[in-house]
Amino acid sequence: MASAKMPNSGTHSTRDKLSQAYNLAGEAAHDTAEQVKTRARETADQVKSRARETADQVKARTQAGVEHSKQRAHDVAERAESSIKAHPLVSVGCAFAAGWLIAKILK
């Protein structure tokens, strides 16, 4: 009868060990999943930060380009105005010729 209890206790011990191994594997999988989540969040935060920095740089460059273009347009307008003031008859003649040419093209 004692020998009959041995296989049961061995089976019970093996089941306990398997159960313990299963639980440890589950905990390890859970810990690994948490680490992956944490790293994914950190990576996402880094990507967001870099994207924000890049967007800010593009915005600054675009604003600088727009300001430069506005300044150039203003300079051209001032030069045209001073040229018109310096030569008013030539300016009127050019405006008349341009209007006449446009009228001929559109007919």
Task: Tell me briefly what this model is.
Helix content is 97%, strand content 0%.
Please characterize this protein's 3D structure.
The protein has two helices and no strands. The protein has 107 residues and is an all-alpha fold. Helix 1 (2-86) packs across helix 2 (88-106). It is rod-shaped, with a radius of gyration of 41 Å. It has one domain.
- What is the H/E string? HH
Strand content: under 5%
Strand segment tally: 0
Distance between the termini: 121 Å
Number of domains: 1
Q: In DSSP terms, counting alpha (H) and pi (I) runs of 4 or more, how many helices? A: 2
Share of helix among residues?
over 70%
Class from helix and strand fractions: mainly alpha
Weakly predicted, low-confidence segments: 1-6
Radius of gyration, in angstroms, nearest whole number: 41 Å
Overall, the morphology is: rod-shaped
Oligomer: single chain
Overall mean pLDDT stands at: 90
Q: Strand count, sense and closure of the main sheet?
A: none
Identify the notable features of this structure and list them briefly.
disordered N terminus, single chain, 107 residues
Helix/strand layout:
Layout: H1 2-86, H2 88-106
Protein name: DUF883 family protein
Region (Disordered): 1-79
Organism: Microbulbifer salipaludis
